[in-house]
Amino acid sequence: MAEKKEKKIVAAATGEEVSNKEAEKNSASKGTRTTKEAAPVGNATGLRIGAVLCWLGALALEIVAVLIFSGKITWSFLPLLYQLIIALVLDLALVIVGAQLWKKANKISPASKKNPVKFWLWNNMGVIACVLAFVPFIVLLLNNKELDKKTKTIATVVAIIALLIGGVASYDFNPVSLEEKNAAVSTISGNVYWAPFGKVYHTSEDCQALNQSETLTYGTVEQAIAAGRTRLCAFCAKRDNIDGVVTDKPVDEIEDSEIIDVDDAA
């Protein structure tokens, strides 16, 4: 039997590396969580406030950009085009930072699907803020008759690119609902594992989907979801007969022969 591959395992609550045996011992304590393991996953309200402040800053920079190209604000040491580009780049940075904070808050305190309007709004706030931060400026640029053609063209292109980049960065491709989070938390009582990248968490460090991962983080399901891992690995769900939890792909698409038993991986 092949020797079990050792992995670097980090505790989500402390950021400290632990041994495989210690992680296994903690994960085996079903329904039992230490104070460190149950550490808060973050303050959703604080993150939302931070996001709103960033978006307000982005709207303020949009106003500054409008005032720049209208000639009401000018920095004589820089050409007009450079002034506009600087304002747009700073605008984009604030839009993206705000979106990341908001998406993080949504993982900690997700909206319920019982209110579809709020659920849609909560998961698209970053995109809405991005549209508000760039579209009015683009419209004003296109309608301006006094700006020279070169400056107008380049500024418009930069603004459109910023809109597209900000929109993609702000969109939540991996949303989670309150119902999905509660189902996962109530069904999986032990600790779970996740890789540095991806959107999936696992019930075992020996899951075949983690074969290429040399570093893993372990913690509670709440911590995994807060870290952006909102789906249970379908292999783990199939192996452990876990129902009622959202997986990364349909469990019934996986054949029994594809499942590697955890004991066999040792």
Describe what this molecule looks like in 3D.
By secondary structure, this protein is α/β, with parallel strands linked by helices. The chain has 2 domains: 8-37 and 191-265, no CATH class; 44-170, no CATH class. The protein has helices at residues 20-28, 44-69, 80-108, 116-143, 149-170, 178-187, 221-226, 234-240, 262-265; strands spanning 8-11, 17-18, 192-194, 200-201, 215-219, 231-232. The strands form 2 sheets. The chain has a 4-stranded mixed β-sheet. It has a two-stranded parallel ribbon with strand order 4-6. Helix 2 (44-69) packs antiparallel against helix 3. The longest helix is centred in the middle third of the chain and has 29 residues, at 80-108. The model is unreliable at 28-38 (pLDDT under 50).
